[in-house]
Amino acid sequence: MTNRDIRSKYIEEILLDKYHGLIGKTVIHPMQIQIVQALSTVSYEDFTDALDILDSTDSKYGVSKGVLGERMNETNPHFLWAKKTLILSKIYGVLNKGVDYEELLKF
Length: 107
Prior knowledge:
The chain is mainly alpha-helical. It has helices at residues 3-19, 31-40, 44-55, 75-92, 101-104, and strands spanning 63-65, 72-74. The chain has a two-stranded antiparallel sheet. Strand 1 and strand 2 form a beta hairpin. The two termini are 21 Å apart.
């Protein structure tokens, strides 16, 4: 197995962890730090939607379209997700609009 294959499997593993709600990853080799950091960074869409959800807690509607127009954000069901997303954004940072984690992994 090549380094590229190992890296690809590690990225796949982290993405699956995130999908299942697991945050953080044990790093056993210095080359893994950049991968974990890049994949932990909050996307622009998640960050902006989280801000909108928390800003609309007093809204009479409780539902809004996501920043990119591909999501529907509901204030009550997504409130805890939004709080968690903002906390993670302070820890890991936020990607710029139109940028994904792969840009951070280029070297």
